[in-house]
Design goal:
The chain is an alpha/beta fold. It has four helices and 15 strands. It has a single domain, classed as Purple Acid Phosphatase, chain A, domain 2 (4-Layer Sandwich). About 20% of the residues lie in helices and about 30% in strands. Strands 8, 9, 10, 11, 12, 13, 14 and 15 form an eight-stranded mixed sheet that branches. A seven-stranded mixed sheet has the order 1-2-3-4-5-6-7.
């Protein structure tokens, strides 16, 4: 485990956080159905993504023996009504989670329109804005903090899909998924990487605050945040603060 603050750790080598006292795993941005959306545009994905996404969730649950999973938004990819592929993937995911004895709840993300129809059928609870577990507020991150959320001192979000961009000696850029952790004023903020192998997002070491996706993260002093670069299923590496990565 990689301790971030008291009661919260990264679970290497997985894109997941553990809220320790609640024995709760937190993940974000599965974007189930993304490969089918790419296929419809003529972009062939040679390897199915669903097994990789499922393993990145099931494996840490089994390793730790978590009793609860919170998905911090964007379970599915399409903004509209779930297509057949998304419906199949979401149902298969929650069936697998129930088989390992893990209760799952979802915080709504900006891609999760219409997901309530799937979750009702599967008896999975949906939180429209956030959920508080122990002393950690979990939001997707596409909306600002609400008035009744401002006083919470520890925030966990997804949405941004943080990436560290590093150029080699030839000037070729390589992009790596990463957790972000640091201060948001007097609060602590932790940003989850996307689980989906296709969902790379913001190059956070090259992007000014005003161009970030999350209005919450826009309020942070970005250069002071610390990335933990992840190769899913392989390793998590501790990097210097963003201001030192060019």
């Amino acid at each position: 485990m990689i301790k971030l603050v008291k009661g919260l750790s990264i679970v290497p080598p997985w894109p997941a956080l553990l809220i320790e006292r609640a024995n709760t795993l937190v993940v974000a941005d599965l974007h189930l159905g993304l490969e089918h959306e790419r296929e419809s545009k003529g972009i062939h994905i040679p390897t199915p993504l669903f097994p990789k996404i499922l393993n990145a969730i099931i494996n840490p649950i089994k390793e730790i023996g978590c009793s609860q999973l919170i998905i911090a938004g964007d379970v599915k990819h399409e903004f509209g009504k779930p297509n057949r592929a998304e419906w199949w993937s979401v149902k298969k995911l929650f069936k697998a989670l129930k088989e390992v004895g893990c209760n799952v709840e979802v915080v709504r993300g900006n891609h999760d329109n219409y997901i309530i129809y799937i979750l009702k059928e599967l008896d999975v609870k949906l939180h429209q804005s956030s959920i508080l577990i122990d002393r950690f507020l979990i939001k997707h991150g596409h909306e600002p903090l609400l008035n009744d959320e401002i006083e919470v001192k520890n925030i966990i979000i997804g949405h941004e899909h943080p990436v560290i961009a590093i150029k080699n000696d030839l000037g070729v850029k390589h992009r790596f998924k990463a957790f972000l952790h640091g201060k948001l004023g007097e609060k602590a903020i932790t940003v989850l990487p996307s689980i989906s192998p296709l969902a790379y997002g913001t190059d956070v070491n090259e992007t000014p605050n005003q161009n970030l996706l999350s209005p919450i993260l826009q309020q942070a002093e970005l250069g002071e945040l610390k990335p933990y670069v992840i190769e899913i299923g392989v390793a998590v590496r501790d990097f210097p603060k963003l201001k030192y990565i060019q």
